[in-house]
Amino acid sequence: MATTTVANSLTQRVIGALALDPTIYEEVEADPAATSQALWIVVLSSLAATRVLAHQLYGVTPNDPVTLAGVATVVATASLIACYLPARRATAVDPMEALRHE
Prior knowledge:
Blueprint: H1 2-18, H2 22-30, H3 32-53, H4 65-91, H5 95-101
């Protein structure tokens, strides 16, 4: 019964994320288990995608750990930069000026 509830919750989150439902993002943000669930979805999806793209790879096996780690590093770096730059720009704004503007 509990696994069915977890599976239904996960399914609802995935469908909500695909529909760009903002309440799903808030719910996932507040739930630490959602991060690990999302990580497993991404890992399993990437392994499934390698099977589909295996014939397009030249000189690399579909589950090459070095390539997967390299891609994960590039994606993580890009996401950190995407978070850092707006945050740095936001620190330059005077909080009182921002409140007056709204």
